[in-house]
Amino acid sequence: MPNTKAYAAQAATTPLAPFSFDRRTPGDHDVQIEILYCGVCHSDIHQVRDEWGGSIYPMVPGHEIVGRVTAVGSHVKKFAVGDLAGVGCFVDSCRTCANCQEGLEQYCDEGMVGTYNGRERVTNAPTYGGYSTQIVVDENYTLKISDKLPLEGVAPLLCAGITTYSPLRYVGVRKGHKVGVLGLGGLGHMAVKFAASFGAEVTMLSSSPSKEADAKKLGAHHFALTSDPATMNGLQNHFDFILNTVSAQHDYSTYLNLLKTNGTMIVVGVPPTPSAVPAFNLIFKRRSIIGSLIGGIKETQEMLDYCAEHHIVSDVEVIPVQEVNEAYERMIKGDVRYRFVIDIASLK
Ligand code: NAP
Ligand code: ZN
Ligand code: ZN
Q: What is the SS3 assignment for 45?
């Protein structure tokens, strides 16, 4: 049983601190991965602090994992020792329901098994994530990683990347569409890159005036400060799609009004408290709101391959694990450019 060093939260109110535990011995279908980098997602903060309820402690967060394979089970076909590998937000699902069969494992009828803050299907043992030196995962839930891109910039693709790629593909964003991306953080900056790459005219909708120059560098054609009433007024009935990545409580109706007739707001941000949606903002322009949760394994691989082909990576600030609590505080203030990534060498 490989002993693993990690950082864990022992409770919702205590900072992350050193922790160690044993991973399972790799089974016939498992790959064992030495973790090199792990991204820091705002969902880590929500779950560490039990903002969504039901958190399991101790909790080792982290679901944007890249590393190198150190062992494979006897039936593993996709991976060999020494290969690069990635793990995203889930490590198992029922594999038989209609969603799993369709490659939509994230919507598994029995519930996907989260990479952390979940429970293994057979043993009910808690799952521990990527703020750790190694992980053991079934090869069917493990992704192939190209050696063409910098690995620290690839790690955030496993959640921030797929969470924005998947809905933009689902609604068919392309040239001719006007897309607004609300919130410029980890998800937002990937959404700008993908929407621009798919040919759309992209507007960054941000509460932070200091992010304007970066938004343009990331590929946004326009920048709109959401606190400026004149700017917001000028954007009424403007967008085909708004991808809403905001992590904190906000008023949906303000942004619904920016959608043109038949426009769609795609919600991916998960504020801890629910938002009310006034019917008037929907009915007068036949607008809709849809939600989207990460992406399935097949689409995640497609996204990783797309990024390798188009040289798309996340803009990252690499930190040692010892700085993760400070990184959380900065993210809550919207002060991240644009993803913190933990260099797991700092744990060894
Ligand atoms: P993040 O890096 O912290 O970025 C969130 C951004 O939202 C901030 O940079 C800020 O952008 C904006 N924001 C924050 N507080 C705000 C406020 N009070 N009012 C207006 N804007 C505010 O977070 P992330 O990692 O991208 O995650 C974003 C959300 O998506 C989280 O709730 C996370 O749990 C969720 N998520 C969902 C999925 C899914 O599958 N649906 C997957 C991953 C994450 P500006 O400074 O530009 O305003
Ligand atoms: Zn995430
Ligand atoms: Zn299923």
A: helix
CATH of residue 184 = 3.40.50.720
Is 232 part of a structural domain of the chain?
A: yes
Task: Output the domain CATH number for residue 336.
Answer: 3.90.180.10
User: Residues 67, 85: contact at Cβ < 8 Å?
Assistant: yes
Query: Ligand 1: does its nearest atom lie under 6 Å from the Cβ of 247?
Result: yes
In sequence order, which residues have a C-beta less than 8 Å from that of residue 41 and are 6 or more positions away?
A: 63, 64, 156, 159, 160, 186
Q: Which among 221, 216, 184 is positioned nearest to 200, based on CA atoms?
A: 221
For 138, the 3-state DSSP assignment is strand
Contact 117, 61 (CB under 8 A): yes
Are residues 25 and 91 both part of a single domain?
yes
Cβ of residue 181 lying under 6 Å from some atom of ligand 1:
no
Number of domains, the chain: 2
Q: Report pLDDT for 1.
A: 66
pLDDT tens for each residue of 193-242: 999 999 999 999 999 999 999 999 999 999 999 999 999 999 999 999 99
Residue 39, token pair as written in the block:
């991204």
- C-alpha of residue 4 to centroid of ligand 1, in Å: 30
